[in-house]
Amino acid sequence: METSTSQFGQAAPAVPPVRDLYHSLQTRIEEHPYGTLAVAAGVGFILGGGLFSRLGAKLVATAIRVGLASAAEPVLQSVVEELKHSVQRPS
Questions:
Q1: The pLDDT of residue 30
Q2: What distances in angstroms separate CA 29 from CA 20, 36, 40, 48, one per listed residue?
Q3: What is the b/e burial string over 55-85, where b = at least 16 CB atoms within 10 angstroms of the residue's CB?
Q4: Mean pLDDT value across the chain
Q5: What global pTM score does this model have?
């Protein structure tokens, strides 16, 4: 790869990083079109001011609820397993 000298005297690649970013995004869009669409819709909703609407508040509350439930599940499973083992152990 060809390099050029930047204004600070360091070697800088001749290919701009924007081109790499473009190709990375293009590959992601081709591999995951629905996920990309969902992210774009979410960003548009937030930038459009939807986060501070009633719908936005309900969506945030639901996301927090789902996130806490999925985070608490492994903890609750380990507590249940410990209780099972303590009941099964002979005293």
A1: 92
A2: 14, 6, 11, 23
A3: eeeeeeeeeeeeeeeeeeeeeeeeeeeeeee
A4: 82
A5: 0.47
